[in-house]
Input
Amino acid sequence: MKLGRNFFERPTLEVAKDLLGRTLVFHEFSGLITETEAYIGQDDPACHAARGRTPRNEIMFGPAGYSYIYFIYGMYHCLNFVTESEGFPAAVLIRGLKLCEPENRLLDGPGKLCRYLGLTREHNGQDLTTCENFYLLNTPPLTEFSATARIGIKQGADKPWRFVGKLVP
DNA sequence: ACCCCGATCGTA
DNA sequence: ACGATCGGGGTT
Output
């Protein structure tokens, strides 16, 4: 069963935790989400939308359930899903994926994940709730997880908004 | 127009 | 610990 709009139209911290264990499908690839981070609104200094709307971050201001993919460090892309209500800029960064198809492999890191799947800015702004080859399945969530500070940021490093699922053997 | 730096990763 | 590599966004 595909995750619908209402899954993403919730507080970002809830969505970030609830995404752990869900299955991401992108064309021939599928895997379990194992690690996420929340970026929440203009009061979160680490959020790309902290200083308002720009061409890059405008998808974050739109409706929930869309992909937000940006280019970083001159060589990597990062995948996010937009959350909360239209007009409120927030998203969940996907940092880890336990790939099941076409091979078993752990994609640990947002840049490595996008590089393996072939995700680029061309896939920015896709509606995950209606797309035929880019969506999420409601496989059982990983209820065991730890919360830590977000990785690679300076501002907002005090907030424990990174969630790492404990994979059950 | 310019310049600094970043939600990273691989190697040292 | 650090360099690669370049787009974005704030500043001039």
Notes: Residues 51, 54-56, 70-75 of chain A lie near DNA strand C (CB under 10 Å from a C1'). The radius of gyration of chain A is 14 Å.
